[in-house]
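Write out this protein's structure.
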Amino acid sequence: MDGGVGEKHWGGLAQIARLNSQWLVPMPKGLTPKQTMAIGTAGYTAMLSVIALEKNGITPQSGKVLVTGANGGVGSFSIAILSRLGYQVIASTGRIEESNYLMNELGAAEVIDRKELSEAGKPLMKERWAAAIDSVGSHTLANVCASTAYGGTVAACGLAQGMDFNSNVAPFILRGVTLAGIDSVMRSYEDRVQAWDRLAEIVDAALLDKISSEISLDGVIPAIAQLMDGKIRGRVVVNLQG
């Protein structure tokens, strides 16, 4: 779905909504409506980010791939997708107690504390990963770029820490790092269909059961409070019939 639904157009948490047909893409074959919603914008954004890495020549042989905001929806799907495609994933999270979930359930090879990246750092730091998917922004994104290996790519798709980006040109002109911006709202129809088709190939019911949980409409407000407190893991599907 496109067009700013839930932001500029009414329709969020509705059983029926009137929408512009250009905002919609066909539901991928092999996925149920519930599974499609479990993937949602988060999984779709993660897939766009992975595709951006692939288009810039990042392969499993390139080296490790960092995923920040690992316990969130985008982070969870990014780890799972990359792992299933054969990449070695480093997960950055503020909830180290979730390491078992990130490694044994989603496939991360390593977990690091987000504190390593969340404070102001140096213009260039030790090369630690070949690529990254960042949903955090701010100092984290700057440090991610500064620690990306020569010729690497960083896909920036979020701003959980903030909209600011206190970086410098060193990673880009000395290491040839590419910073790829990921917009999930105004993408072309072709891009959206490609991402959803890839998701249908990679994601299965077992993975969605690990990443998502279901609540009723009455549970939305409490879930939002938990989300803002950083206590929600993965995705939440709202059952509008309940």
